[in-house]
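in:
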């Protein structure tokens, strides 16, 4: 069966009723449309399965953007690329680095209310937020991307303050939008998982597709697009459009994936593991009526509890 990551003009507006998500081919061909071609159009199917990733463009008319909110080190750039690939519409950030404002973009990446983020005065025009969560045990060291010795030094001096920021960040967004019509929670852990990743991408597409003027790709092509963006290191990119040696970082023209990898080892001592547990347990208690959120935090607590302390 030939797959194509196609952008349809009218078909796609679905609620998050996922059902079966088609699997992607074991060996994908991903063709990247040349950046100078900014027309949002039907993409072409590739032999033996695969999809075409087309360049981003600004919306043709004003739309209500969605916040893409994440604690630093939680996959913000990866999600940025995925949102573009799913919708074909450009993204900006809360500092307006693109210099185009927020009227013609599908989402705005933000770390607010942390110091890394910025409050947007036009907040009322936003329709809601995608809250990207990651276990704080891995999010903190991933953001700082230190060598082992540097991580130990930073951890011992700053972990407590970082966990307070994590708590502040999560609390802000959970309280800002207490309706699931306006808040979609997605975890980094799900996004990178081979089974859960395409499902998470489908949720993102469905949530964004509820915005007037946003028409994501048909759901049957989402697994291919997810694999192209999130698993770019595994993708065999067609020589048409982008040379195979250039794959990965140029998967979406003008929007390279984050270069942050984080340390491969993230040791904590027993006191610090207790701090992590206390943070997660406190958030679970604070939002105890939100079953989805509690389930996520419970999985984080289980992971933290399984780690052996290195004192």
């Amino acid at each position: 069966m030939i797959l194509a990551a196609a952008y349809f003009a009218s078909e796609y507006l679905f609620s998050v009723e996922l059902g079966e998500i088609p699997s992607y081919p074991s060996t994908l061909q991903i063709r990247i449309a040349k950046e100078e071609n900014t027309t949002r159009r039907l993409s072409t199917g590739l032999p033996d399965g695969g999809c075409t990733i087309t360049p981003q463009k600004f919306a043709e008319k004003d739309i209500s953007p969605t916040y893409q909110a994440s604690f630093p080190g939680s996959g913000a750039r990866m999600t940025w690329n995925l949102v573009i690939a799913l919708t074909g519409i450009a993204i900006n950030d809360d500092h307006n680095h693109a210099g185009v404002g927020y009227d013609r973009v599908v989402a705005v990446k933000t770390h607010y209310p942390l110091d890394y983020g910025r409050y947007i005065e036009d907040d009322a025009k936003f329709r809601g937020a995608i809250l990207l969560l990651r276990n704080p045990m891995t999010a903190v060291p991933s953001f700082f991307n230190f060598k082992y010795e540097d991580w130990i030094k930073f951890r011992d001096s700053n972990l407590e303050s970082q966990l307070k920021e994590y708590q502040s960040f999560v609390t802000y967004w959970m309280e800002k939008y207490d309706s699931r019509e306006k808040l979609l929670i997605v975890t980094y852990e799900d996004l990178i998982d081979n089974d859960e990743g395409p499902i998470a991408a489908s949720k993102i597409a469905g949530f964004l597709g509820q915005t007037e003027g946003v028409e994501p790709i048909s759901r049957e092509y989402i697994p291919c697009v997810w694999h192209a963006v999130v698993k770019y290191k595994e993708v065999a990119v067609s020589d048409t459009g982008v040379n195979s040696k250039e794959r990965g970082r140029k998967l979406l023209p003008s929007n390279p994936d984050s270069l942050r990898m984080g340390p491969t080892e993230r040791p904590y001592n027993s006191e610090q593991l207790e701090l992590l547990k206390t943070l997660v347990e406190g958030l679970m208690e604070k939002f105890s009526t939100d079953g989805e959120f509690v389930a996520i935090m419970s999985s984080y607590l289980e992971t933290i509890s399984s780690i052996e302390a290195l004192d």
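note: The CA atoms of residues 62 and 211 lie 11 Å apart.
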